[in-house]
Amino acid sequence: MEYLFEHITGFHVFDEKGNHKKTYNNKEEINYDNYNTNITEELYQKILLFLKKESYLKEMYIKNIYLTRKDIKKSVYEDNLIIQSIRIIDDLNKVINHIAKRLREWYELHNPEFSKTCPDNERFVKIIIDNNKKELLEKINIDYEVSMGCELKEEDITIIKILAKEIERLIELKDIQKEYIEKKMNNICPNLLSIAGPLIGAKLIEHAGSLKHLSELPGSTIQLLGAEKALFRHIKSGAKCPKYGVLLNHPYVRDSPEKRKGKSARILADKISIAVKVDYFKGEFIADYLKEQLEKKKKDIK
Amino acid sequence: MEYLFEHITGFHVFDEKGNHKKTYNNKEEINYDNYNTNITEELYQKILLFLKKESYLKEMYIKNIYLTRKDIKKSVYEDNLIIQSIRIIDDLNKVINHIAKRLREWYELHNPEFSKTCPDNERFVKIIIDNNKKELLEKINIDYEVSMGCELKEEDITIIKILAKEIERLIELKDIQKEYIEKKMNNICPNLLSIAGPLIGAKLIEHAGSLKHLSELPGSTIQLLGAEKALFRHIKSGAKCPKYGVLLNHPYVRDSPEKRKGKSARILADKISIAVKVDYFKGEFIADYLKEQLEKKKKDIK
Q1: I need a labelling partner for B242 at 20 to 30 A (CA). Which of A227, A274, B149, B216 fits?
Q2: ipTM above 0.85, yes or no
């Protein structure tokens, strides 16, 4: 009876004394009935000595790299893409606010009165694209002649509007990213998507590092994801313990009375923790049931 | 003879005893030959008392606001617009780099090998829009199978390309802003534009606050504009005095040998100082002559 030894460099056949007989490269060619795969300790030592030959070492090195590359290739999952996308959304938010502030500063040379009445950046950008100064001043009942803004030439207004349109496109891009996240989450974590929504759900995955890791976290940790700074301050210097992190923006917590926000966050985090576990192990869609429970608990704590 | 007193509320006519006779609202209605405008100290006191009446005070208040508004309106000059535009360019540079880094991070999941070979962000963005992974790997002679990047679905690649196209548009917007600055500077400071170029010229105006203020600065101050931090460190703690600020990016300084950069900056700043003074007082176009001198001096210090 000959022995079959499976190795990174191929399938090697040895006799009972440890002499090398042949090598298969493909599993398919092997008739397993002809070989014994239970290798004794004694034989194992001999085989290792045989494989220590330089030619095999080199081959092993090459195949090892090949397999590692393949593993790295496979190590990117959909949750990595979700994390990238939510980071882009965060960046876009910052960028939009920053450039919109500049736009405002510029536009205020021309029409300071209107700018003051419209604090929301995204709305501001859309309105000044579609309306000229006269129309905007009429809306807020200010006489055109009274305005302290200077007259601008056509070319100046054009370049301001080009900038405003760019900001508008960045805002649209944010929506496109959000849709993308929703699509991805629908594939890999429909329960999390349904309970937490695309943005908060993606943020939780980002903070945990992966869907797998998020599924391993207890509710109490999920409750504080995104509040790491405050948590460590609490541990280090005894400041107040934070009650919520990312979850604060969830309507279930945000719309709670101030005193019950912590409690709501805890309940929500518990349900999210369940949802993610079910998602990770490809379970059923149970989000509707969990949501029902959330509503019930809300009434209870009131 | 009656006396005419010009005041913010109108043109008032008094007799020699200080009794008010009439008021003109328009300069055009007045026949100056009929009136004496040299008001004696004694009469002046009486007139002031008359104007202290409440009705005049109120009118004065309203007219004062009106005139102030008008002045504010007129206080925006073309150099304000240049300053806004150069600030936007600065912002865009930051934003483009920031988002491009994110794009890279995302794209590297798919094709890490190519990303490493192309350090320039703007080029990177353009190339990945036009080429797929296979084409890019061929360019750098890497086998597609060997790549460590994962396979992405069509939808994933689409969203990455949408982001890349957005960055491309931001890069274009920078060029549009640059053209705008050039156009503006051509109107108000052609000499500065010709010597310093649009970006450095605009940066100098920005640091000085206005073209007027820039025209009042000596060459030695212009030389250090943009190096304020280093300058104050020098004054406060005796660190090395900076030799150039914004001007470092000018080819005349940048392309000088390391040891002569300070000298080149000084010479360039001198000529710029002349150019701006000429521009501010609407002088001739002398930039070509100044540039000639710069070239001459370059040869002298070599």
Answers
A1: B216
A2: no
Write out the H or E segment, with its range, that includes residue B266.
helix B261-280
pLDDT in tens, chain B (302 residues): 788 888 888 888 888 887 888 888 888 888 888 888 888 888 888 888 888 877 788 888 888 888 887 777 777 788 899 999 999 999 999 999 999 999 999 999 888 888 888 889 889 999 999 888 888 888 888 887 778 888 888 889 999 999 999 999 999 999 999 999 999 999 999 999 999 999 999 999 999 999 999 999 999 999 999 988 888 889 898 888 888 899 999 999 999 998 889 999 999 999 999 999 999 998 899 999 999 999 998 887 66
CA A61 – CA A69 distance, rounded (Å): 12
Dihedrals phi, psi of B11, to nearest 5 degrees? -105, 110
Please list the alpha-helical segments (H only) found in chain A: 41-51, 54-74, 78-108, 112-116, 121-130, 133-139, 154-188, 190-196, 198-208, 211-216, 219-224, 228-237, 251-254, 261-280, 287-301
Residue in A closest to B176 by C-alpha: A159
Of B102, B156, B180, the CB nearest to A91: B102
Q: For residue B141, give every residue at least 6 positions away whose Cβ sits within 8 Å of its Cβ, in sequence order, or none.
A: none
Query: How much is the pLDDT for A288?
Result: 94
Q: What count of Cα atoms within 13 Å lies in the side-chain half-sphere of residue B173?
A: 30
Residues of A in contact with B81 (CB under 8 A): 106, 109, 152, 156
Please report, as a single letter, which amino acid is at residue B202. Answer: A
Flag residues of chain A having pLDDT under 70: 302
Q: Give the mutation candidate from A63, A76, A105, A165 for the B interface (greatest B CB count, under 10 A).
A: A76
- B132 by Cβ neighbours in 10 Å (0-12 / 13-18 / 19+) ranks as exposed
Q: What is the DSSP string of B39-60?
A: --HHHHHHHHHHHTSHHHHHHH
Beta carbon pairs, A and B, within 8 Å: 93
From the number of C-beta atoms within 10 Å of its C-beta (0-12, 13-18, 19+), residue A39 rates as middle
B63, B68, B88: best to mutate for the A interface, most A CBs within 10 A = B88
**Backbone φ/ψ region at A217: left (φ over 0), alpha (ψ -120 to 50), beta:** beta
Per-residue confidence (pLDDT) for residue B47, from 0 to 100:
83
Q: Do B106 and A95 touch (CB under 8 A)?
A: no
Residues of A with CB under 8 A from a CB of B: 69, 72-76, 80-81, 84-85, 87-88, 91-92, 95, 98-99, 102, 105-106, 109, 146-152, 155-156, 159, 162-163, 166, 169-170, 173, 176-177, 180, 183
Q: Which pLDDT score is estimated for A137?
A: 86
Long-range contacts of B172-175 (CB under 8 A, 24+ apart): B173/A162, B173/A163, B173/A166, B173/B92, B174/B89, B174/B92, B174/B93, B174/B96
What is the pLDDT, as a whole number, of residue B302? 62
Angle among Cα B163, B168, B174 to the nearest 5 degrees reads 130
pTM check: above 0.90: no
Written as one string, the DSSP assignment of B210-245 is SHHHHHHS-HHHHHHTT-HHHHHHHHHH-PPPP--S
